[in-house]
Write a structure and sequence with these properties.
With 546 residues, the protein is of the alpha+beta class. Helix content is 50%, strand content 14%. The protein contains 16 helices and twelve strands. β5 and β6 form a beta hairpin.
Length: 546
């Protein structure tokens, strides 16, 4: 895909019939898709503007699998083809279309490989409109957002473990981009037997609304505040996308992955049509217009009969709706509770909750139609709990931040410290409960906040009450200080490179940073995966200078 930003503007001077809704509105699109530092671009962007409907979609290949370099373009093209064949903004129809594509692609992969781990998966963000209102859809961690008056008023949910942490209130939204579990998916489009597509309710568009679709390579290097501030200064979508790309590259500390942006400026949407007039309203109009008193009385009586009958029906409907709302609220509560329990690894309670949700859906069937997909979705989530258990275990093994600290020794030390002591006549001081190691500095270190992690380790050392804790924290502090020496050298090199200063100095800074980093090669407190990433990054930077 070409590097330059492309823009498209609707023109009312077209020779096509001007009866189409498209030609009565003004939507302006701009996009950019790049491979970053990767060898190939696994992202895809496409859109189609028909006479009465429009569809924009971005697809992000989640890496791995037999079709890792083909899945994004295949899924993107298939979505657009299906939309052209059946253009709609209906929530249910969009969900059915995406589930059908998911099933078809999964079956195609099952013919090629036997192991599900070898399947290729992708993330999708989709914007569909009739040029007056819109529906959004997403799965995975490709995102959409709507800016109104330069503030994000609507945004997507990620289907990842990191997002579950955010929903449980354990982390802030902008912290998601720093976490490793942003790549651990709870829904895998193209691989899972059954999944739930996130499809929004109808959203009414307003003049000067801005829609942004973007992939992980983009949002992991941007805060929401960055997007809002850039929107304030960009009157055209091309400028908006260009400034987002520049800010993203300035924020990127690690290697830049595949990224795609698509911005749609809604300069003039169509007005939403007024709802149809009710029976009572029509009778009121007739009564007010009719001067014949007898006819007017008949119309008044007719209106009263409608009101009385309507009142009984309304009461029954309210009662029914209250019960339906009660069941649906209980389902929503248990869903949220189940998510938190999955996040806290309490899998037995999570299983109980999701089983209760299945029973509630069965009860709901007595009052309203419940799609079979709802029950299948719960079954799928129950199966996913087992997968999450395995994935989280593997992920934990890769976390080296506490690996050097022997947990059994910590427990032993804790038990020794809290053994009951002989009673003496002297006044006993209340015992302090020693906490097992779960340091704030470890989390900050994983999020590349090296200055913060150093400060947290130093604060924790002041309160350390066992030799093991003190040894661990001293080791972390020494490692963190050494790493910061290397980080500062690398940042100076980046600064000189950005300002196009002396290239020899840039090279010298990078070489010195490499030397300082290599001092941590056998350090027990430096995570091996973090060390390898840093070394590879610096070596690649030096290669580019040649």
């Amino acid at each position: 895909m070409e590097k330059e930003i492309r823009e498209h503007e609707n023109e009312n001077t077209t020779q096509v019939s001007l009866l189409g809704r498209k030609y009565q509105s003004v939507f302006v699109t701009s996009f950019m898709s790049e491979r970053g530092d990767k060898p190939t671009n696994n992202c895809y962007i496409s859109y189609i503007e028909l006479d009465n409907f429009g569809c924009w979609v971005v697809v992000d290949g989640n890496n791995g699998g037999i079709f890792q370099n083909k899945i994004a373009s295949y899924i993107g093209e298939t979505i657009v083809e299906n939309f052209i064949a059946n253009p709609t903004i209906a929530k249910r129809e969009i969900e059915k279309m995406l589930l059908s594509i998911h099933k078809k692609y999964r079956n195609m992969q099952s013919e090629e490989v036997n192991i599900e781990d070898d399947y290729s998966t992708c993330s999708i963000a989709m914007f569909v409109t009739d040029y007056a209102v819109a529906t959004f859809a997403s799965v995975g961690n490709a995102r959409y957002g709507v800016l109104r008056n330069h503030k994000l008023v609507k945004k997507s949910n990620d289907d990842t473990l990191a997002y579950l942490q955010y929903e449980a209130g354990n982390i802030l939204y902008d912290e998601i981009r720093f976490r490793k579990d942003k790549n651990i998916f709870t829904k895998r489009f193209g691989a899972d037997r059954s999944i739930k597509i996130n499809v929004s309710d109808i959203f009414v568009l307003r003049p000067n609304d801005r829609v942004l679709l973007y992939t992980q390579g983009a949002w992991e290097n941007l805060d929401e505040e960055d997007i809002e501030l850039i929107s304030e200064k960009a009157e055209r979508p091309g400028k908006f996308i260009g400034n987002l790309v520049n800010k993203m590259k300035r924020n990127c500390f690690l290697s830049l992955g595949n990224y795609t942006f698509c911005g749609i400026y809604i300069n003039r949407p169509l007005d939403v049509p007024a709802p149809p007039e009710s029976s009572i309203s029509k009778l009121k109009t007739q009564i007010s217009k009719n001067k014949n008193s007898l006819k007017k009385k008949i119309l008044v009586i007719l209106a009263l009969l409608i009101l009385i009958g309507g009142g009984v029906l309304a009461y029954q409907k309210i009662k029914l709706n209250n019960r339906i709302n009660s069941i649906e609220k209980e389902i929503a509560f248990n869903l949220e509770k189940g998510r938190v329990e999955v996040q806290e690894k309490d899998y037995s309670e999570a299983t109980t909750n999701y089983q209760k949700i299945k029973d509630l859906y069965t009860e709901l069937k007595a009052y309203k139609e419940v799609p079979d997909e709802k029950l299948k979705e719960i079954d799928s989530i129950l199966a996913e709990i087992q997968i999450l258990n395995r994935v989280q275990t593997l992920s934990k093994l890769r976390e080296d931040s506490l690996e050097s600290y022997k947990f059994n020794e910590a427990v032993k030390s804790y038990e020794e410290e809290n053994k009951p002591k002989p009673v003496t006549p002297k006044k006993q001081e209340p015992k302090k409960i020693a906490k097992l190691p779960a340091y704030k500095g470890d989390r900050e270190f994983r999020e590349f906040r090296y200055y913060d992690s150093l400060k947290s380790y130093e604060n924790a050392l002041k309160g350390a009450n066992t030799p093991e804790k003190k040894e661990y924290l001293k080791g972390k502090i020494a490692m963190n200080k050494q790493l910061l020496i290397a980080v500062e050298l690398e940042l100076k090199g980046d600064e000189y490179l950005e300002k196009r200063k002396d290239s020899k100095k840039v090279k010298k800074y990078y070489e010195d940073a490499l030397v300082e980093n290599k001092k941590l090669v056998n350090n027990n407190y430096m995570p091996k995966d973090r060390y390898n990433v840093i070394i590879n990054r610096l070596e690649n930077k030096l290669k580019k200078l040649k």
